[in-house]
Amino acid sequence: MIRVLIVDDDAVVRTGLTMMLDGFEGISVVAEAADGVDVPRALDAHPVDVVLMDIRMPKVNGIVATHHVRARPNPPEVIVLTTFDTDDNVLRALRAGASGFLLKDALPSAIVNAVVRVAAGEPILSPHITRRLMDRAATSAETYTKARTTLANLSPREHEVAVAVGQGKTNAEIGAELNVSIPTVKAHVTRILTKLDLGNRTQIALLAHDAGLC
């Protein structure tokens, strides 16, 4: 059972998501929160696998809340909820550790698929949407240099995997490109996360983007 926490200051949105997700076998909404300030209490009270996190909330916004969630021991994954075209903070939320994002008007099947994939350790990185997000972020010379220096800690093969992750490729696609097995790709990703002290694949992708490699 995938346990979900829904965080949104709109009660209608929370109710709609809860009714929709609870209608799918294998997913259970175990808690709701109306603001980021309430998230720690909810996580203390309920084991959670995936958090659906709104960005704009009155007290503690989704960016700060996501950072706090991902800083917890054995943290749940976070999917950011956004209207996208009007919200410029999504990239900051991804840098804070979110595994991906969803449009609030996404189809129920897309939301369910996102929850299932993220719970299984796969980020929600639509190449088209993610590229638009990344292109909206101006990368400074300092950020570029820092990213290049950080990636220099990787082996040549790990570097190739990091770039492929940044291009939005799946483990299967990376394995086919590098002629290695999917478990080997997963092992490389795990080592990259450990070496670079990153929380998830999304942050690998953003680092590769900052370094100008994608």
UniProtKB/TrEMBL annotation:
Pfam families: GerE (PF00196), Response_reg (PF00072). Signal peptide: none annotated. One of its GO terms (biological process) is phosphorelay signal transduction system. PROSITE patterns: HTH_LUXR_1, HTH_LUXR_2, RESPONSE_REGULATORY. GO terms for molecular function: DNA binding. The modification 4-aspartylphosphate is found at residue 54. Residues 147-212 form the HTH luxR-type domain. The keyword Signal does not apply. Keywords: DNA-binding, Phosphoprotein, Transcription, Transcription regulation. Residues 3-119 form the Response regulatory domain. InterPro entries: CheY-like_superfamily (IPR011006), NreC/VraR/RcsB-like_REC (IPR058245), Sig_transdc_resp-reg_C-effctor (IPR016032), Sig_transdc_resp-reg_receiver (IPR001789), Tscrpt_reg_LuxR_C (IPR000792), WalR-like (IPR039420). This is DNA-binding response regulator. It comes from Kibdelosporangium aridum.
